[in-house]
């Protein structure tokens, strides 16, 4: 009886490998690979950006369908980082996914992100040491980029609406402006 109960629980509980090998239906996150041709001994930054209305309870980094790292989801966090130490066997396709637990504690999984290929080019010792990867400058967060786009769109849409409303209310007459017989505007004060 106890053995069958343990078996049933192991079948019902999600395995840590399921996110990578059997993704779900939630929207895929966006995956970034900061250095695609590293050498052995380098460190590569993998980033997974999760855009979801619900809190991601777990974010998983995968290589060829196998989990290599996972992190607990944090409130108000969108982008999760994983620094991967490159070795000879590091070449391959990398992706990420996430899980969300609903109110009944059921785990819902995302689709996997688009895979990015990491190709290891050689040994860091052959070029004189294992320096840290260089950072080319500030990277704009996807959330900030999206907020900027929304604000620009709102500004572009609101200008004609404000102009239309002002024309309908006849703001030029109530502001003390009068049109002369030649068609020019004269301020009366």
From TrEMBL:
State the organism named in the record: Mauremys mutica
Its protein name is Ig-like domain-containing protein
Entry keywords, A to Z: Membrane, Signal, Transmembrane, Transmembrane helix
What stretches pass through the bilayer? 145-166
The residue ranges of the Ig-like domain are 23-113
Region forming the signal peptide: 1-17
- InterPro entries given for it? Ig-like_dom, Ig-like_dom_sf, Ig-like_fold
């Amino acid at each position: 009886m106890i053995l069958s109960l343990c078996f049933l629980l192991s079948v019902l509980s999600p395995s840590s490998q399921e996110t990578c090998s059997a993704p779900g239906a939630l929207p895929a996150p966006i995956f970034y690979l900061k250095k695609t041709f590293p050498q052995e001994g380098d460190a590569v930054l993998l980033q997974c950006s999760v855009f979801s209305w619900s809190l991601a309870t777990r974010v998983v980094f995968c290589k060829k369908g196998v989990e290599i790292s996972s992190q607990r989801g944090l409130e108000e966090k969108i982008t999760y980082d994983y620094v991967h130490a490159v070795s000879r066997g590091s070449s391959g396709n990398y992706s990420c996914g996430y899980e969300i637990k609903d109110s009944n504690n059921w785990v819902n999984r995302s689709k996997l992100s688009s895979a990015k290929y990491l190709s290891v080019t050689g040994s860091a010792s052959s070029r004189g040491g294992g320096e840290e990867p260089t950072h080319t400058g500030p990277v704009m967060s996807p959330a900030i980029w999206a907020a900027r786009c929304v604000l620009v769109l709102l500004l572009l849409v609101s200008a004609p609406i404000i102009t239309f409303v002002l024309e309908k209310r006849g703001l030029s007459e109530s502001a003390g402006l009068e049109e002369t017989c030649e068609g020019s505007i004269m301020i009366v004060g």
